[in-house]
Give the backbone structure.
Amino acid sequence: MSAAKPKLELDPVLIRKARALARKAGAPVVKIARTHTTVSVERAVLRLAGLSGADHDRLPWVNHLVDAVRDEVGLEHGVATPVFDAIRRGAAPDLLTLAQKSAAGSISFRLPEGRDLVAAKSLALRSVRPGMARIDRNRATRDRMIKRHGDPRQRPWIYLIVATGDIYEDIPQAQTAAREGADVIAVIRSTGQSLLDYVPEGATREGYAGTYATQENFRLMRAALDEVSKELGRYIRLVNYASGLCMPEIATLAGLERLDMMLNDSMYGILFRDINPIRTFVDQRFSRQIHARAGIIINTGEDNYLTTADAVEAAHTVTVSQLMNEYFAKEAGLQDWQLGLGHAFEINPDLPDSFRMELAHAMLARQLFPNAPLKWMPPTKHMTGDVFRGYLLDGFFNLVGAMTGQGILLVGMMTEAVVTPFLSDRDLALQNVRYVLNAAGGLAEDFHPPRDGFIQTRARRVLSEAVELLERIVNDTGQSGAPLLEAIGDGTFGLMKRPAGAGKGLDGVVRRAPGYDNPATTLLEGGAGT
Amino acid sequence: MSTRDTAAEKWPDVIRPYGDTTGDGMVQVSFTLPIPHDKRAEGAALQLAAKMGLAPAMLVHAKAMGPHFTFFVVYGSVTHLVDLREVVVIEREFPLLSAKEVNAEIKKRLHRKLVVVGACIGTDAHTVGIDAILNIKGFAGEKGLEYYREIKVVNCGAQVLVPELVARARAEEADAVLVSQVVTQKDAHIHNTMTMSAAFREAYPAGRVPLLVVGGPRFEQGSAGRLGIDRIFGKGTTPGEVASYLVHAMTQAGTQAGTQTGAQTRATTKEHRR
């Protein structure tokens, strides 16, 4: 990536200060994340131990088992100890039978003590190892396939979306998109899924504005893209969403099925989906630990700030969110190359100098995070239905992407906000990207904004506004002891006030007891797997 | 040819599209056919153009998109005529007011704040529309309803269940309920809207139902009655238009609200429209 000399003359002291403030804002939240668990984290542990499938009402067995343990002994000690104690006692030969029996109410769980406790924990650890080993193997397989087929020849990687609702329609569309030049395929999720407190099972053919994220859908699509990677001599990456109430489980399934990128933002669910803040931060930390282990690149959701707020006035909120996402990601073990920090081309094109400001913002992000791939998102808010103007805007968006060395470029559609893209819209969009990258891909080399010119000044201003906002956040003291939670509760981010004691999924949050054990966390935090 | 008088200028009643000369009828269309690109495909594109009324048609661009599809751009003169006398326009039924006028009008007529409850219902998580209307930030340079001193806004956010919305509207004694529906796959916007209006009719005595207003880019104009709601707003609606409509509708209802007959009249007209 761009290790060349910096193009914006930013104050290094201010940059250090921004990171220090992000750490200060984030650390108390990490502490909360380390002292709580959630139903979805516990279900993810069972998934790693190999439990899958659902009952005839399509409610997954992991939900049944976690609910049963919670009802009888609580989740304060984690689900693993009582579950594997029951297996040890011979209550059932395996997890599936145990879940089925517990759903019928014929299992009683207990919190073992002494030697039973040690044995249960040891069995739990042994049982989770194969799942973790599969994640490790998948990572190695990906590395091997990239070596064999190769990475995309150009940067940014070209990211395209498919979203039919039917996995069997998605597959040919994704393969076609890859043949037409897409390097990264995202399967948009059905719009209701983020608020489901379970992961649907099996191959699905019906979704709203997207396709359900399920383990089987993941497997089918990855296999289809492996086929096309081989055909094209280029490893095609697959993206899905580790967000919403089942973030840890979906992250786990992504690791088990070798997905390559996951959308995973630290605050998106809180602000835009009204998911409880603590639930989000606990789930997010676990999911990011899994992503780190699985070699998955995360994509953060800063574009959302700009679609709901003004892209000029709110430019600094993007920077603040990127810094927070970076802090939380690194704390969870992710490395720079895994941080697809988001930003977007959403300034009103009628404003004078809108393109120059876009350039300034994109260069700021590039320079603040020189080793992160950065995900560059196309215009949506100012796409009016005038498809011709939209096509031009997308061209300018592509140009900023090329000039500022973005890592991942989400391809904009001229029919954004009009219809789901036609086949031809996608083809035209890719033509647009190819033209710009081909014509101006090397422009990054020539383009150096003059000292104290418009672009440098604008970038500095956004950075200093970001630092001011971070200062306001860390000074937001209240009873939770976590200024970031107070700030989220006060509506510091946009107009959305999200108090820590409210929001969806709150009832799935449990404070850990001193004896809490999570074998997956043990392996994730202990480093080596086997 | 007869003509009509609009302002100072005279327009003919019958017109054709304009390319670069009056009456040339020129249009451009683009489309994809699910066949490989060859001579036959080009012939097929011209056949379609002829059936669409383009004569003569020029195939200016044809491009293979993979082995199974071809993309075409066609220019041509349409044989159809447009008769302006047959065009039906639904005019805005209310005057557009400034924020100040809206506030003054509410104060004068209602003697209290106008309560608006807003949400995205069903699986729809796209709050862009409702936020543009409700949030102070607003849309297209106009401040949202939160900015109006005499309007109390309760924004319930995304993916709100219909029973929750009804309960909230009752608790807040809402005068109007604003619902945004962006996702249209499998007609979700229609189903959600009808579920919502049915739930409100069930929960409230006849004639007491708050104004039900739905916004979204894909609602058919004039379908409000069929959906059981009072008003639909389409793409590009500004907060000022919504505020003006609410004042118009409320003050109309407000003058009647005192008398039982008035309330019944409103209920009857609603029934009638359905």
